[in-house]
Design a protein that fits this description.
211 residues; mainly alpha; Tetracycline Repressor, domain 2
């Protein structure tokens, strides 16, 4: 191989990078199956086949169906954090950061199948009284804490009303997103862009500091 060829040859991925890629492929395959066919469809056999790997690899990586769903929850949270960082939400005022977070979430809900799979899995875990309810409760707590932090930031910078209780207001924002997400699962024809606009206007009026 010439020096010129070596210069332009793609760098060989490390073992950690290959593992991260295979994990991501397995999780996305699970998300697609759940969104398309329901919670019970995400078997290791189907997940491995769709991702282009063996059933054994999915079992080895996640151990159980619950382990797979817990990993999917973590992946979706990490994905949400990446989207927020890409929009530089941390540089916005408290109120604008809340609105931008809601906007990014709802646009992602409309465009990415993986997000819809979260709520299908949530419904399945509640219906079957699965121990995964604990994992989903922790996930919702994590989202609530994120909004609570932004509400408190807004109260400090003067963009969010001081008479609001940050904890309960954060729960309200999270519950709004949960309700919209569930509605879109029940009725895929829901006009999400219009709902998104209405949600943003409502939150601006209900959270914003008086002028």
């Amino acid at each position: 191989m010439s020096l010129e060829t070596e210069k332009h040859a793609p760098a060989r991925r490390t073992q950690a990078e290959r593992r991260a890629q295979s994990d991501r492929s397995l999780l996305l395959a699970a998300a697609e199956l759940i969104a398309e066919e329901g919670f019970q469809a995400a078997t290791f056999e189907k997940v491995g086949a769709r991702a282009g790997y063996s059933r054994g690899l999915a079992s080895q990586r996640f151990g159980s169906k619950d382990g797979l769903i817990e990993a999917l929850i973590d992946y979706l949270h990490d994905r949400s954090d990446e989207l927020a960082a890409g929009h530089h939400i941390e540089n916005l005022s408290g109120l604008e950061a809340i609105l931008a977070s809601v906007d990014v979430y709802l646009r992602n809900l409309e465009e990415e199948q993986a997000v819809r799979s979260y709520f299908v899995a949530l419904a399945g875990s509640v219906a079957t009284l699965s121990r995964l309810r604990t994992a989903f409760a922790a996930s919702h707590q994590r989202a609530k804490e994120r909004f609570r932090t932004l509400i408190e930031k807004g109260q400090r910078d003067g963009t969010v009303a001081l008479d609001l209780v940050a904890e309960t207001s954060a729960l309200m924002v999270g519950s709004l997103l949960l309700g919209i997400s569930t509605q879109c699962l029940i009725d895929p024809t829901t006009d999400l862009p219009s709902v998104r606009e209405a949600a943003l206007n409502t939150l601006r009026r209900s959270l914003g500091a008086p002028k």
